[in-house]
Amino acid sequence: MNDDVFNMELRKFLKQVGVTSQRAIEQAVQQGMAGGRLNGTETLKARMVLTIDGLDLRHEVTDDIKLS
């Protein structure tokens, strides 16, 4: 294994996860506000689950996202 290649590929993947996840959350919140399901004062419970095919890996992160 080439540690430098692995590190760069891992960072690229995590950057993509972060950017696309942020966009998806922002769009969902905007739609929730527009549709009246959210009023802008909620705290949303978020969960992200990472799995990797071929490895016995399941990593879960949970946190609250405050809207105000």
3D architecture notes:
This protein has 68 residues and is α+β, with helices and mostly antiparallel strands. It has one domain (3-66). It has one helix spanning 3-34, and strands spanning 43-52, 57-66. It has a two-stranded antiparallel ribbon.
Task: Tell me the β content.
Answer: 25-35%
Rg, rounded, reads 16 Å
Order of strands, main sheet, comes to: 1-2
What's the mean pLDDT score? 98
Quick synopsis:
The chain is an alpha+beta fold and 68 residues long.
What would the keywords be for this entry?
elongated; 47% helix; 68 residues; two-stranded antiparallel ribbon; 29% strand
How are the SSEs ordered, and which strands pair?
Elements: H1 3-34, E1 43-52, E2 57-66
Antiparallel strand pairs: 1-2
